[in-house]
Amino acid sequence: MARVLIVGAGLTGSLCAALLRREAARPVHLAVWDKAGDSGGRMTTTSSPHNPQSTVDLGAQYITRTPHYAQKHQSFYDELLAHGILKPLTSPIEGTVMKAGDCNFVAPQGVSSIIKHYLKESGAAICFRQCVTQINLRNDKWEVSKETGSPEQFDIVVLTMPVPQILLLQGDIVNLISECQRQQLESVSYSSRYALGLFYEAGTKIDVPWAGQYITSNPCIRFISIDNKKRNIVSSEIGPSLAIQTTVPFGVTHLEHGIEEVQELIFQQLENILPGLPQPVATKCQKWRHSQVTNAAANSPGQMTLHLKPLLVCGGDGFTHSNFDGCVASALCVLEALKNHI
């Protein structure tokens, strides 16, 4: 049985795992590793330490389907809508720019529920807090080392983490990447930002007419979402939760600053936009060093094959574009690259 490792439990990695399980001609042993403590990647949903029912999306906020992808990726949308994982976004988002034929969707259980659905479908062995450090060739297999625990061997490895993290890997992989490929990988760039999640006590009222708002007049804050309102969830037992996303210039300027200092700066600016907010019962500040792709790898149609036998493939939005459909497109390209090997 071929042993396949997918590094990264975000959208591309989880969908790759689900597609492999569905499409593989023969049984495969699938493993998914992620360095974080949970799945989701940049589609992460975090919950209040006081009430696991109270959640907030700290990465992607909603999914915009264009007419082009409504056709091209129809089966993916149909599946998620049929399972109730996606629903049309009906709550008002102020300042959003909609093009003709676009349709927005929200995940009622939080955006990470999409990832969890695909991982469940895949039946993969999922391991968190597994930070890959080295990839070496050993007897026509890949020996993958991580920060803790013994190295493990695989027949196929798929890397879906942000491209700068691929370039940090040590071992034989360093010499296997061609000069041309290295230049392409080094050309991939990302924006940086922070996200702040705020959790409030049940019964707290946040009296604004919108569920989300794009801010254009603030140096720090770019977007605010009242997450329960965005998802149309009304409950007397669960307090409201807010997601605040910063501007990219603020993220870049404060990238190496302490989380507590950054959180305080966001709070100060939030007071200018929503004065008199009550004190939250819990907060979660997330640094997105690799937020959205600003420059994707040139001439890489969704994936890059670094080695053929044994197979080593890279995928993710660094090879397409940063949204749901970019990740789906990459996962389909990775699957195509793997088809002859499984």
TrEMBL record:
Organism superkingdom: Eukaryota
Matches recorded under InterPro entries: Amino_oxidase, FAD/NAD-bd_sf, RNLS
Keywords assigned: FAD, Flavoprotein, Signal
One cellular component (GO) term of this entry: extracellular region
Pfam hit, one: NAD_binding_8
Entry GO MF terms: oxidoreductase activity, acting on NAD(P)H
Residue span(s) of domain Amine oxidase: 105-330
Leader sequence segment: 1-17
This protein's name: Renalase, FAD dependent amine oxidase
Upper classification of the organism: Eukaryota, Metazoa, Chordata, Craniata, Vertebrata
